[in-house]
Amino acid sequence: MKFKSTAIAHPNIAFVKYWGKRDENLRIPLNNSISMNLGNLETKTTVEFGNFNEDSVYINDNLIEGKEKERIIRAIDRFRNLKEEYKNLNVRVVSKNNFPTGAGIASSASGFAALITASASALNLNLSEKELSIYARLASGSACRSIPDGFTEWLMGTGNDDSYAISIAPKEHFKIYDLIILVKTDKKEVSSTEGMKKFNPYFYSRLAEIHENLENVRNAILTKNFKQLGIYTERDCISMHTVMMNSGLFYWEPETLKIIKEVRKLREDGKICYFTVDAGPNPHILTLQEYMEKIKEHFMNLGFDKILESLPGGRARVINDFH
Ligand code: DP6
């Protein structure tokens, strides 16, 4: 028997975002969050357990050491500690993204979702989607939303066993385009994990409106009401960045605000599109097929020529089983 598996997972873009934890160790969030997997972007990860000299992790052909490696090994150890026979096995992880890492495109979400899916399969653990989502959450909160298919909601829950993501609609349900304009792809200065620890009173205002945002975004997805989805997605993004800025975290660059203003202008001009931004400077522009080319052209003409494009994506999945 070979302890080796390869899995693919997509990053996701949150319409209602996760920012703040109720439990740091278990990564229990302050609120539910809703996102869409990004089908054109993916992380492919091979995990092999065996009698290697040591644990090793490669991401995009670079040997990973230090804190980044530790976090990955901690996720693997949750599985290795399940059985006595696994404890002596070392691991080799080889992971590749087809998109820039560390630019607020949630590479930790697809990275950990693929890692968990491949590791569980390599060790023949036969875990349910819910269990995989729980293990992914323990590694990185937003990763739990990259486990199920299409449009997903992370149910915040009350503890380890009931905080996980479910699919609320399959990827084929709603053909939303996400255009990601890359204004800067350097690694961000403050990670999400560190950033969300900086508590300030604006967290309370955000939580006061989050229920309404969740209701509206969920219903907008289910009824395919793009305008409603966009309005509440923008509202939630602004609310999260208000919290961030009050913690001293300015993830936006001048270009970020420029693009946001252009999105509003395009809308006035009848080209329906909405923005959202994660913990980084690169805006995501959500739109429908009929407006897509015109919007891309508009930003290219303004000199923004690095644009990633994606439709909704499927669940995290094993693509190659060597058993
Ligand atoms: C801004 O999932 O990276 O992208 O649980 O500490 O690993 P940790 O945080 P992480 O935070 C993602 C924050 C966000 C919003 C979102 O995707 O919901």
List the SSEs and their pairings.
Elements: E1 3-9, E2 12-16, E3 21-23, E4 28-29, E5 33-37, E6 43-50, E7 56-59, E8 62-63, H1 66-80, E9 90-97, H2 107-122, H3 129-139, E10 151-155, E11 164-169, E12 177-181, H4 192-195, H5 202-222, H6 226-246, H7 254-268, E13 273-276, E14 284-287, H8 289-301, E15 307-310, E16 317-321
Helix pairs in contact: 1-2, 1-3, 2-3, 5-6
The structure holds ligand DP6.
The site of ligand DP6 has 15 residues, from helix 4.
Characteristics:
6-stranded mixed β-sheet; binds ligand DP6; 4-stranded antiparallel β-sheet; 8 helices
How would you characterize this protein structure?
This protein is of the alpha+beta class. Helices cover 36% and strands 24% of the residues. The protein is built from 8 helices and 16 strands. The strands form 4 sheets. A 6-stranded mixed sheet has the order 8-7-9-6-1-16. The structure holds ligand DP6.
Quick overview of this protein structure:
The chain is 36% helix and 24% strand. It has 323 residues and is an alpha+beta fold.
